[in-house]
Every structure is written in structure tokens, then in C-alpha cells.
Amino acid sequence: MRMSIVTLAIVSGMIASTFVIGGTHSYSESHKDNFQVEDDPKRVAILYFDNTSGESKMEKLKKGLADMLITDLSNVSTLRIVERDKLEELIKEQKLSNSKGFDAKTASKLGKLLGAQIILTGSFFEMFGTFRIDARFIDVETGEILKSDGVEGPTANFFKLEKQLAFKIIENLEVNLKPEERVLINNSEKNQEISYQAALIYSQALELLDEGKRQRALEKLNVVLLNNPAFEPAMTILNKTKVETTSNETTADEKIYRGSGDPLKGLNVAKAEEMKIGNYYALIIGIDNYQGEWTPLKNAVNDAKAIEQLLRTNYRFDKFYTLYDENANRSAIFNQLEWLVENVEENDNVFIYYSGHGEFKTNLNKGYWVPHDASTKATSGYISNDDIQTFLAGIKSKHTLLVSDACFSGDIFRGSTVSVPFEDSEAYYKKVYSVMSRKAMTSGGIEPVMDGGKDGHSVFAYYFMKALTNNKINYLDASQLYNALRIPVMNNSEQSPMFQPIKNTGDEGGQFIFIKK
């Protein structure tokens, strides 16, 4: 059953003429009093750091970096840190573009409006696996740069670099740090460390919140918390956002529809627009060999590799990512799903295929994927269908299709859903492509499924590939693929394949379309 850091001499703008790598530069002894310890807490505003890397995907990181610094420095009782929400509100009110860094004059202006004494801003860049963050301290009253400092190290250690910078900022501000406050920040490092990819996703969530896209922001935050459940900044925003959202929602008994109440009313295929096709991504996972007490499988990897080759040869796919056997451990699967969340664009399409053991815990009423390194049958080593749903909701593709050939994979479906009815016309394909979809096709319901069966493949994989191989039309949507394999699988096994939208992941009734080369 399928049950060397590279030292860089590149520092942009004002930093290049004044910064000493690894050290602190003091600009004016006359402003030293601004950093003396006082009875009253110092009022500090942290502006967004400038992305000087030239990489557009890093642009949103400036908000995440600022927010993480705000969270850490807010633990210091001798500092009063301006909340990021107030900064964002002021930027919009002043009609300032935050696409570029703030110069000293603009920073000083913002600082005065925020009631701050000192402004902290700076820049960051990443090159050849090395990440550099430079910070500038600006006197609000005069607009003069008082000090600068910075950190650099491997990009993979982004979280640690942010912590190092936080302590350098405290040191440069010359404020007293109580032992318990240092413990709070250090505890954050031990219990809440997140990956660089997760930091990018968190930053995207902040951007979505600022744009008023609450639901999409919640999806991103949930993805971050899957691997980092104690990450305080995400938890704080998630709880706050949920409270605000709930207060504005109707109760479960007050179901309001716009129009007749028919969820599909208005999806007129005759008015379909031309398809704007983005990239096609494939993530294919196959596991035969497991650590610990799991029985090895015979065909899971063979099935996955055969499907990979079929798609490469016959269908349009731009990028393939594969995880087989020992490479398909829990961390690697999570990291690859995180990569899709962070990199996939709105017109892209994602195909995910999982072939391996599945498990269902009756007492928890929950199904799971079993990664290679699940050495015991404890759920802590599994990947739950709830986790998978969270990732699927966070991937901002046009269409995502999950195909799972594992025991109990039908547990991914919870609740009733609807899709656009099939119509054999070009207009239909244009319409279902233009409408978002998040669907899954599984080899069975909440039941065991067979590993072997047909020509060295599972029964499901055999007929899945046969349907794709025998297809003669240019556009094959997932619903028609399912119709081609459902009856043969049922007639040649004891399992019943399923195909449905996945509840609460953003499905709007569209279909994933396989495009022949």
C-alpha cells in the first residue's frame, strides 16, 4: 500500500563615502549628547531600508526587515519605537513613494511628523550568497547623519544577521539594556528563527496588508507559521488581522450572495478573454524508501519519474523540481513549497504530484503525507493535509493542481465546492483558464490504495499517464483528464479516485489546463 563569505566592497549612495566595514562611523561629536542615556526613553522611528541589490523580488523585504527590527527593539524599555502601521499611514498621507530609500531630508521630515528624536534607515543587498545590511542614524532636528553601522554574512543566516543588527543598534543608541530584555531578544533567536525564504514571504504578507488584501496576507502568514509556529511578528499580525476581519464579517447564518445566489452566475463562456499564459511549474515527489518502521514501496519513485518524463516530453512545462527518496524529507518538501509561495506569479500554473505513503489518524480526523525521514509513526514527522492546504492557499498562481497517489489522500477535500460546467468549446477553455483554480485529484478517498498493479506502476499512475499519452487535443483540462481515468481505475482496483476543488484555498471555479507541445 501507499500508505566562505564573499567580502564585498559595494556600498551604495551615502554609505560608500562614510562607512567602514564591520565598524561604526561617528559623523559629529557635537551630536554625541543625542545618544547619552536619559531618564526618558528615546523615541526612535525605523524607516524602510533601501534595496540596492537590483533584485525586484527583494523589494518587499524592506518592510519585513523594518518590522522585525521594530519587534526586537520594542523589548527595550529605554526606547520608544514608532509602530510600522503609523509609518505606513504617514507615507501614504504624504504621498511619498517607498520604492526608493529615504534621503536624510525626507527622513528628518518623517521623523518630526512621527514625533521621533532619531531616525534609523539604511540599505541592504545580496550578492553571491552574501547578505549585507547597512544602518544610518539620523538626527531628526538637523537631518544630519550621526552614525552608521552594518552586518554581513551568508544569506541563509538572514535571521541571525537581523538579530546582530538589532544589538548593534542598541549599542549605538547607548541605552541601557536590562538582562531580562537581552534574554527576550535572545529567546526570540532560539525559538523563532525563520529561513530567508520565509522572511520574504512574511514581507509579502506585510505588503498585502498595506494594500488592503487581508485574505491573501493571512494565507502568507499561515505559510510562515507552518515551519515557524513561534515567530512572534507573524503571530501578532495574524491575531490582530483576524480580530479586525471577524468584526467586519457577517455571521455564519447570514449567507449573502450578490445577484441570484448562484456562485457560477455570470461565468459566461461566450465572453471569455484571450488567455494570458504564464510559466508552468511542476513539483514532483516520489518516495519508495523510508527511515524507521515504514514498509518500502516498489513503484512510487518509478511512477513519479515516469510522469516527470511524460510531462517534459509532451506538455508545456517551464521548470521542474523533483524530490525522490532521501531528498524528499520533511524539511525539503516544506522548503520547496515555500519557494513556490514566494516565487510563483499570478499568471503562472503549478502542478504538484505526490507518490508515497499516506496516513490517516482517526482520533484526529486528519490525513497526512509521510516524508522520507518520518522514522516513527508519530504525526510530528508527517505533513498534514491542513499544512498542504495552507501552502496551496499561499501560492499566488492562476491554477494549481495537486495530484496525490497515496493512501487516505481524499482527506484533502473538506466541504462542498462547485466548478464551471464542462463545455467542449474554445471559449470554455479560455474561461476556465481565466478563472482561478485550486484543485486536487487523488487516487482514492479516505481508504488505502495499491502500490502495484499495471506494468510496474500503480493502477492510478498507469491510467493517469495513459490519459495524458493518448490525448490528441491541444488543451486538456484537469476535469477531462479525471473523466478519462476514473472508470478504468475503479474497474481495475478497489479504490475510487476523486477530483474536487480544495476548500478555502482561493478556487473560483476554473481548471488547470495541460497544453501539448
Q: Would you write up a description of this structure?
A:
There is one protein chain. The chain has helices at residues 13-18, 61-73, 84-93, 104-114, 158-173, 179-191, 196-210, 214-227, 232-247, 300-314, 330-343, 385-394, 426-434, 459-470, 478-491, and strands spanning 25-26, 42-46, 50-51, 79-81, 118-127, 130-139, 145-154, 280-286, 319-324, 349-355, 358-361, 366-369, 383-384, 399-405, 437-442, 453-454, 457-458, 475-477, 498-501, 513-515. It is of the alpha/beta class and 517 residues long. The protein has 2 domains: 13-191, TolB, N-terminal domain (Rossmann fold, 3-Layer(aba) Sandwich), CATH 3.40.50; 271-515, Rossmann fold (3-Layer(aba) Sandwich). The strands form 5 sheets. Strands 1, 2, 3, 4, 5, 6 and 7 form a 7-stranded mixed β-sheet that branches. Strands 9-8-10-14-15-19 form a 6-stranded mixed β-sheet, with helices on both faces. Mean pLDDT is 78; it is low at 3-33, 245-273 and 413-422.
> Main sheet, how many strands, which sense, barrel?
7 strands, mixed
Q: Distance between termini?
A: 34 Å
Poorly predicted residue ranges: 3-33, 245-273, 413-422
Structural class based on helices, strands and sheet pairing: alpha/beta
Number of domains: 2
C-alpha-based Rg, rounded: 26 Å
Q: Sum up the overall morphology in one term.
A: elongated
Q: What's the CATH first level of the largest domain? A: Alpha Beta
Q: Examine the coordinates and then state which fold CATH places here, giving the name of the CATH topology of the largest domain.
A: Rossmann fold
Q: Could you estimate the helical fraction of the residues in percent?
A: 25-40%
- The CATH architecture category of the largest domain equals 3-Layer(aba) Sandwich
Beta fraction:
15-25%
Query: What is the number of helical segments per DSSP (H or I, 4+ residues)?
Result: 15
Q: Overall mean pLDDT score?
A: 78
Number of strands: 20
